[in-house]
Amino acid sequence: MWRKLYAWLEDRLGLEEIYKATLDRPEPKGNWWNTLGSASLFLFLLQGVTGIFLTVYYTPSPDHAYDSIQYIMNDVAFGWLIRGIHHWGSTLMVIVVFVHMVRVFVTASYKYPRELTWIFGVGLLLLTLGMGFTGYLLPWNQRSYWATEVGTRIAGSVPLIGDSILRVLRGGPDLSALTLQRFFSGHIWIIPALLAAVIGVHLYLVMRHGESHFPDKDD
Ligand code: HEM
Fold it and tell me: Which of 33, 40, 63, 70 has the fewest C-beta atoms under 10 angstroms from its C-beta?
């Protein structure tokens, strides 16, 4: 029965063609360092899934943000676990993406023909840091409030356009409900959408050029 169902789907969707075009290609000799890109992708998806669960209870308003997090931690079934995974997952993602970049640099995999893979990768690193920056404010506790006060002030110290950047980030001259709303929207919509799109281009380029291999004695 499964074979028939598969043949029916294959006939209509062309699954084998998709498989051949995307996954069925020669890989360089196995190396753990080459798994870090996939690990970054896994963490991005994990953050997405746990983040969606968190939005079920999280409220992005100064009056309720802190309490909604307390509620998730103490009263929601497995809320502590979902938040814990999301919290530590974010730190891990920054570390893993960074180490992935370091390995690409050390093996000189940014050279021809992978320059664009590297450039889009830089975008991915910045977007990943943006996720961390916007997410940090959401618990709306003393630490997150003052960290964002300092972080936005640093962004505001850019010559000439600093004040505009600060106002765009804060939604005005000071940290307020508008800032929380903006950071929330950036954290759950704008930056993830950009990340997904840039990851798509990044992976297309990896598939197009294949993976570089670690230089060995014969090279
Ligand atoms: C969310 C972040 C990222 C994801 C999901 C991601 C994903 C991947 C995947 C799955 C691969 C193929 C497997 C591997 O070589 O590990 C790869 C390769 C590559 N990545 Fe990333 N990456 C990310 C960030 C970055 C960053 C920050 C850079 C550099 C600034 C970068 C540059 C590259 C390059 C040049 C390759 C090709 C390496 C080769 O052919 O050996 N990536 N990436």
Answer: 63
pLDDT of residue 83: 98
Tell me how far the alpha carbon of residue 112 lies from the centroid of ligand 1, in angstroms.
Answer: 15
Share of the chain above pLDDT 70, in %: 98
Q: What is the mean pLDDT of residues 74-94?
A: 98
For residue 191 and ligand 1, the question of a CB distance below 6 A is answered with no
Is the CB of 38 within 6 Å of ligand 1?
Answer: yes
Residue 101 Cα to ligand 1 midpoint, Å, equals 7
What is the distance in A from the centroid of ligand 1 to the CA of 133? 22
Of 209, 13, 5, 30, residue with least CA distance to 112: 209
Task: Tokens for 131, please give them.
Answer: 């996720």
For position 21, what pLDDT does the model report?
86
Q: Considering only the C-alpha atoms of the chain, give the largest distance between any 2 of them, rounded to a whole number of Å.
A: 68
What distance in Å separates the CA atoms of residue 146 and residue 148, rounded to the nearest whole number? 5
DSSP-derived letter for residue 173 is S
Taken as a whole, the chain contains a residue count of: 219
Model pTM?
A: 0.94
Any atom of ligand 1 within 6 Å of the Cβ of 101: yes
* Angstrom distance (rounded) from CA 140 to CA 180: 8
The reply to whether ligand 1 has any atom less than 6 angstroms from the CB of 202 is yes
Q: Where are the domains of the chain?
A: 32-208
Mean pLDDT of 30-51: 94
Span from the CA of 105 to the centroid of ligand 1 (angstroms): 10
